[in-house]
Amino acid sequence: MKYFLLAGFVSACTLAAQPNPGAASIEGHVLSSLTGAPLRKATVVLTAPTSQIRLVADTDAEGRFQFLGLPPGTYRLSASRTGFLDRPNRRPIPLAANGQVTDAEIRLPPQSVITGHVLDEDGEPVDRARVGAFKQVYRNGSRQWDRLNTVPETNDTGEYRFSNLTPGRYLLRAYNTRPQIDNRYGNPPKMFYVPAYYPDALSQERALPVAVGVGAEVRGIDIRLFKLARPPSVRVRGRVTGVPPDSPIDVSVSLLPTDGGPFDGGSTLARSPDYAFDLSVPPGQYKIFGQVYSGGPEAYGTGVLTVTGDVAGVVLALNPAPDVTGRISLAESGAKVNLQGVRVALTRLSSSLVSELRSDAAGKFVFPKPVSPGHYSIVNVRSIPDGCFIRELKFGGKEISWNDFEISASSQMEIILGNTAGKIAGSVSDTDGKPFPGSSVTLIPQDGKSRPVRQAVDDDGNFQFTGVRPGKYKLFAWEEVDDDLWQDPEFRKNYESWASEITVGPSETQNAQLRAIAVDAMK
C-alpha cells in the first residue's frame, strides 16, 4: 500500500513538472546585430505587462531560447549579454491559446570600447590616474559634451578601459591623483600636473575627439600628462556695492577663467562694513561673479576682467534677482480657449535642473523666486489647448528662440498661441511592409519656429502629432534612436533618403506612411 501511494505521488510530481502540451510557446534566437552570429549564454526576459508575468531563459550554443506553457496574451522580449548592449525587442508578440511563435529574434549590438594609457612627461605610465569621458550629444538646440558617470582608474601599467559604450564621439580627460611634490616648508610646489584631454590638451576646445563605431574597440588612446608652473599671482582688490552698509549679509566673490585654463581665481567672502574683497590670481581673463551668500535676499553681479598685473578699485555692483512673470495668450481676438494648466518646462543652460510651471485660469504663470540671471532654454510646452499651437515666444517684448534666451532683469515671458493648428497622422512599417509597433517618429520643423518632437508608435503601428504649427516638416521613423542624437542636424543628414517631407496648412490634417530606419541600418 505504501508502495502504490509513493508511486502515485512520484507520478503526479513528474506530470506537474512537464509543460502543458496544449499551452502556447515562444521560441527564437539572439544574434549579434553586427555579424548575425548566434549568441550563447544570453539572458532573455519575457514579460506580459497586463498579467505581471516575467520569465527568464538562457540561450543555447545556437543562440536559441524557449518559453513554454504560456497562457494567451501579449508578450515582450528583451535580452542582455556580457560584451553587448541591452536591446529590447520592441514589437509586442500576440499569443493566442495554444499558439506557437517559433521565429522571435533579438539582435544585440556589440558594445564599443575605448582603451589606452595615461603617461607622464617622460612617457612612463601613471598608475591610479582617473580618466573621465564626455560624449557628444545634442540638447537645447546645440551640441554639448555630456560627462559619463563612469570614471575608471588606471592600473599599474597606466592602462584605463571604457566599455559598454554606444557609438558616437568622445573626449577623454585624465587627472593625476598622486600627491604633488612639496618638500620644502613654507614654499608651495612650483610645478604640478594639470588635468589633460586626449592627446595632450588643456581645454575641450583643443582636445581631439575619438570616433567610436558599433562594436568597435578603439585602442591606443594614450593621454599625456604634463607639469605646469603656476604663474606668479597678482592681486585683484575691490568692493561690492548694492548691499546695505552694516548689514549681516555676506557676499561670495569669485574669479573664473574665461578660457577654461587650469588655474582658477578662487573665491572669497566680502563682508560688512565696507564689503571689500582681495583675491590672488595668475594673470589672465576672468569672469567676476558675486552673489549673496547668506544673511539677505538673493542678489547677483557679474563682469569681465583682464588681469595683467595688480588691479585695485574694482567695483562689483549687485542687483536683486530678476522678478519674472509669465503669460499665455491667444493671437486671435474673440476666440474662447481654456488657458489653464498649460505646462512650461525650462532650464538654465549651465544647469541640468528643469523647472516646470503651470498656468492659471487667466493664462498666467509665476517663475520660482528668485530667478538666477543667465541664459535659459525652453525645454517644452505641454497641455496646450486642442487646436492650438505656439505661434510666438517673447521675453521683455522681444521675440526669443526656444534654445537660448537671456534673463538679466525683471520682465515678462509671453507665449502666444494660434488656434489653427494642424495634425499629422500615419503609420510605420518595416522593410517587409508589416506594421512596426514600438518604433518612434520624429517631426522636424523646417522653419526653426517650432521645437522638434518625438512620438511613440502604438501597438498597431500608428502615430499622431497634434497641435502642429502650419508649415513644412520632415518625418523620420526609427526602430530605436538615442534621444541625444535625432535632434542633431548633422546626424540626420545620414538618413535624409528615409525622410518624408510634408506641408501642413492651417487646421489641416495630413497623413504619412513611413518606413522605419532599422538599427542594423544605422551608422
Outline:
With 523 residues, the chain is mainly beta.
Description:
With 523 residues, the chain is mainly beta. Strands 9, 10, 12, 14 and 15 form a 5-stranded antiparallel sheet that branches.
Chain oligomer state: single chain
Number of strands: 42
Radius of gyration based on Cα positions: 30 Å
List the uncertain runs.
1-19
Explain the layout of strands and helices.
Elements: H1 2-17, E1 24-32, E2 43-48, E3 53-58, E4 64-70, E5 73-80, E6 87-95, E7 100-108, E8 112-119, E9 130-139, E10 142-147, E11 159-165, E12 168-175, E13 191-194, E14 196-197, E15 210-212, E16 217-218, E17 223-224, E18 226-229, E19 234-241, E20 250-257, E21 267-270, E22 276-281, E23 284-294, E24 299-307, E25 311-317, E26 319-320, E27 324-330, E28 343-348, E29 354-358, E30 364-366, E31 374-382, E32 389-395, E33 398-399, E34 405-407, E35 411-418, E36 422-429, E37 440-445, E38 453-456, E39 462-468, E40 471-478, H2 489-492, E41 500-504, E42 509-515
Parallel strand pairs: 1-7, 8-16, 8-17, 19-25, 27-35, 36-42
Antiparallel strand pairs: 1-4, 2-3, 2-5, 5-6, 8-11, 9-10, 9-12, 12-14, 12-15, 13-18, 19-22, 20-21, 20-23, 23-24, 24-26, 27-30, 28-29, 28-31, 31-34, 32-33, 32-35, 36-39, 37-38, 37-40, 40-41
